Amino acid sequence: METSRPEERDFSEIPSDIPSVARPTMPERQPSVRKMNFSEVALGLSESQVIFEAERCLQCGICSECLLCTDTCSTLGAINHLEQPENSVEHAGVVIIADPEAAPAVKGEDVIRAYGPKAAKPDVYAMIIRGFAAAANAMVLLGGASERPRGRGVSFLPPDPELSPEIRIGVFVCRCNDAFGWHDEMDQYVEGLTQKEEIVHAEIMPSACVPEGTAAMLKAIREKGITRVVLASCVCCPLDFVCSACTDQRSRLKDALFHGTGISRAMVETCNLRGEALRYLMEDSATALDRFTGLITRSVNRAKSLRPLPAPVRTYNFATAVIGESESAVNSAQTLASAGLEVFMFGNEGRPLTKKLSHTNIHCFEGSEVTGMSGTLGDFQIFVKTEGLSQVIQVGAIILGEKARGQIPYISQKGLPSSILTSSIQKRGTPGTPFIYPGATSIAGLFKAYPPGIHVSKRRAGAAAAALAAAIMPRGPRQSKGFTVVVDKDLCRGCGRCIEICPYQAVTLQENRMGGWYAMVDEALCKGCGNCISVCPSNAADSPYRDQKYLEQLLGAVLVETG
């Protein structure tokens, strides 16, 4: 057994006469203050206390070989105390170094440094811009590694495997590696599920998120012709989305179960068994068992009414328009062109384009002035005036120069008033500002070559905008995310409130059969924020996993319990 701390670690020396110090007590809010509200009970430690405790916890630096972790993980056997460290070699075409402390002495055009000078102020937005610029340089160096689409194309995803009208339900229950323990009555309940109508398979597995667990589920689904799946594990939802609640286990399980397996997200109903039932086992086994059975029973009932997810189809133009002749705008155009993408350059209103860049991938519209723009990602319309001739040119993405960003109006839809785009960045203590990447705007596919308020060079800012424009174009079909909003055109009365509140320009108005209007949501642009649902006066806007019916049932249950 090792008796000293690792020599290769930079630990400070532990004095021989160090005193024994008790841990600080967590201060709590008084009951009289918190009685009628939801204020946090624990007030937290001070900064000095947190630093002291962290330093003390990290002082030993070695494993004491108690082997308790081996006993805890005995079900999977994932811990191997006999494993030795190994050195591996990775091959890469370009190396990006983001940490100046870890920068090696090696130099070359394929070694890109994404950090600023030592004198630069620690600004997170400037750091993001430098990272995007480094990615753009790498994209240029590796430009011949992949074929870029050009012109115009249709991006679509083949529909998910159709949900069979025959309901054959399979229930898979994860014990989460017995992290909270297990109860024999849970085994009995799951074993008895197959006696119920339409349930053809019920299985308990030690851990669903490991490759063996996922493989067992796929095998059972295929062999028994299961058409609906109930997954009781730590996974909250089957959506193609990673949120702040997604742990590595949750995202790993969803990725292994849905990607490239032929299993549709539409046929899976999930429930967070770990968080809503198993965690009560140590304190109250009766409550845990009641929650366990109720959670699975409700999930089985919901699985019977699952519906297929839609498959979005979008038309994409793969050219990028760069408007303006500023240094950052020109650098954006040159970066995109060097990476193999098609670029159209235009002048700003009142400032016709005079420059002509000599690159085969850049088409300069000399003498052109852009008077307006409309559309969304992949389907923008640029209104151009050249020597008295007006025309509309379609592009997939737009990068605005420094002058253009404050002059060219954006028209969200024909017939609606235009507006000048404004965007702000999040600041400490200022609520209500959604996060967007520096250089991006609330409209997908529309970027600024030099975002205001961020202190980086114009060359780097232009390269960063080019990286954003190149990354947003699809290389393949876009998958249905499953959480976007859907509008019932028979209930919608075309008031336009959803258009006003949508921060992503995902809503447009379409004419109905009666000569009126109804809202339609572009699934490729919708982020599922639910703003439009909250302002819809006719309940026409709805979304899976938080639909109107579910809200009514939830409110009904709360009102019944509270009397």
What does this 3D model show about the protein?
- This protein has 563 residues and is α/β, with parallel strands linked by helices.
- Helices cover 26% and strands 18% of the residues.
- The protein contains 14 helices and 22 strands.
- It has helices at residues 31-34, 47-57, 68-72, 124-141, 184-192, 211-223, 248-258, 273-276, 285-303, 327-338, 458-472, 497-501, 531-535, 548-562; strands at 95-97, 111-113, 152-156, 169-174, 199-205, 228-233, 268-272, 313-317, 320-323, 343-346, 362-364, 368-376, 379-386, 389-395, 397-400, 409-411, 419-420, 446-448, 486-487, 507-511, 517-521, 541-542.
- α4 (124-141) packs across α11 and α10 crosses α11.
- The radius of gyration is 29 Å and the shape is globular.
- The N and C termini lie far apart (63 Å).
Protein topology:
Blueprint: H1 31-34, H2 47-57, H3 68-72, E1 95-97, E2 111-113, H4 124-141, E3 152-156, E4 169-174, H5 184-192, E5 199-205, H6 211-223, E6 228-233, H7 248-258, E7 268-272, H8 273-276, H9 285-303, E8 313-317, E9 320-323, H10 327-338, E10 343-346, E11 362-364, E12 368-376, E13 379-386, E14 389-395, E15 397-400, E16 409-411, E17 419-420, E18 446-448, H11 458-472, E19 486-487, H12 497-501, E20 507-511, E21 517-521, H13 531-535, E22 541-542, H14 548-562
Parallel strand pairs: 1-2, 4-5, 4-6, 6-7, 9-10, 9-15, 10-11, 12-16, 15-18
Antiparallel strand pairs: 3-8, 12-13, 13-14, 16-17, 19-22, 20-21
